[in-house]
Every structure is written in structure tokens, then in C-alpha cells.
Amino acid sequence: METSRIKDLPVHDRPRERLAELGPDALRPAELIAILLRTGLKGMSAIQVAEALLKQFSSLSDLARASWESMARVRGIGRDKAIALQAAFTLASRMAAEIRSEAPLLDTPERVAALLRAENQSYSVEVFQVLLLNTRRRLIRVEKVSQGTLDTLLVHPREVFRSAILNGAAALVVAHNHPSGDPTPSDADIRVTRDLIRAGQLLKIELLDHVILGLRSADRPRDFCSLRELGYFGS
């Protein structure tokens, strides 16, 4: 006779004990749902009820979108368990949306490069971008200031910091690509960086870094450079 109560299962097969020992990733969807259900009904364990629920709705995504009324019609669920499941699915959905919408933290050149890498590798000319940050070093927005050959005529501090002021940025990072693939800074890159540092000091909006993106090669394992790391920002 098939076991119909979770408490009749060996301890190592019970969902709560398995989660505590192995973590949630080790459990099947039916086991995770069984933990939320807590109990089954006569002749059906919570796991079996969960399996029936999953069979009824075909997929987890369909189940998560289902109304509590439709879940309640499955044998062993009922109103209270269906409402509890809908609350859990809604909470998970809101948490996922919050994670997706949270602005990325850009407190290292590695993170700046990771954010811009794919887009910058598609450019055939140099594109100068400004990353506007809040007080927690999280991204407000990215703005393209100019494209072409980088020099002080194309990248003027006025244009860079106007955007920062309009968007209420507390700090910023600037970045541009080298289509040649070599991220080594040119004299113009260094000159622009120093101009922006001075402007930021006057406006009380800190320039945190200037990141140049290139391409990896056999003798260049890192595809970007940070002018701050290279010492151009002073002490």
C-alpha cells in the first residue's frame, strides 16, 4: 500500500527535512508545494495532492497564474490552501520583479565593463557614455554624450555634467570603447579624464572612474582598463 501521509515516510524522504538538510534546490516542485500545503487528506499525502495540482495545471507558470478558485477545485486543496498558494506565488512574482528592476551597483570597473561590454563591442567608432549614479553607487541611467574620435571638443565637461545635474546624480562614471580592441588610454583619454575630474570637484559631483573597453586577446586577458586603477585620479 502506498504511503499516504508524509509523517509515515522515512525522515530523509520528508520534504521539510530534505530542504533543511539539502536546501530548496534539491526538492522537486511537488515537494516544495507540499511544504506550503502542510497536509493532504485521507488517502493522499500532501506530496500526492501537490502532484495532482501540477498535473491539473501542466506547468509551474500556469499554476502561478491560476486563480485561487481554480486551484481550490483540485481534490485536497480547498479554499484556504488555494489562497495560501496564490499568496506565495504572488510574493515570489513581486520579489522577482523587484530583483529585476533594482538598479545595478556600479562600484568597480569590473561591474561597469560587465554592464557595457556587449553593447560596446558592436560599435565601429568610439562612443563616449556617462553612467549617472545615486548616492549608493547604483545606476540612474546611461547617456551617450558623443561618438567619433575622442578629444576635448567632442567631450566637453559641460555636456557630461549637465546630464548629471538634470538627473540629480550624486556621482558618475564615464566610459568609452576602443574599436581597435586595445583599451590602453590615449593622451586624449587622459586629458579628458583630468578635465572631468576638475569639473566634478567644482560641481561637487564626483567622477569615480573612466573605464575604457576593448577586446580580450592572448596577451591581454582583461578587455578593459580603469584610469583610476592606473593612477590618473591622484590620491
Compose a concise summary of this entry.
This protein is of the alpha+beta class and 235 residues long. The chain has helices spanning 15-22, 29-37, 46-57, 60-65, 68-72, 78-101, 109-120, 157-166, 187-203; strands at 126-133, 139-148, 171-177, 206-213, 224-226. The protein starts with 14 loop residues before the first helix and ends in a 9-residue tail after the last strand.
Salient structural properties:
single chain; 2 domains; alpha+beta; DNA polymerase, domain 1; five-stranded mixed beta sheet; elongated; 15% strand; 235 residues
Describe this structure in words.
The protein has 2 domains: 6-101, DNA polymerase, domain 1 (Orthogonal Bundle); 109-226, 3-Layer(aba) Sandwich (Cytidine Deaminase, domain 2), CATH 3.40.140.10. Helices cover 44% and strands 15% of the residues. The chain is built from 9 helices and 5 strands; from the N terminus they run H-H-H-H-H-H-H-E-E-H-E-H-E-E. It has a 5-stranded mixed β-sheet with strand order 2-1-3-4-5, with helices on both faces. Helix 2 packs across helix 3 (46-57) and helix 8 (157-166) crosses helix 9 (187-203). The longest helix is centred in the middle third of the chain and has 24 residues, at 78-101. The termini are far apart.
Let me know the CATH homologous superfamily of the largest domain.
Answer: Cytidine Deaminase, domain 2
Overall morphology:
elongated
Q: Tell me the name of the CATH class of the largest domain.
A: Alpha Beta
**Percentage of residues in DSSP E strands:** 15-25%
Element pattern in H and E? HHHHHHHEEHEHEE
Rounded to an integer in angstroms, the radius of gyration calculated over CA atoms is 27 Å
Largest sheet: 5 strands, mixed
Uncertain regions spanning at least 5 consecutive residues: none
Q: Figure out the total of helices.
A: 9
β-strand number: 5
Count of distinct structural domains: 2
**Coarse structural class:** alpha+beta
Helix amount, in percent? 40-55%
Q: Please, what is the average pLDDT?
A: 89
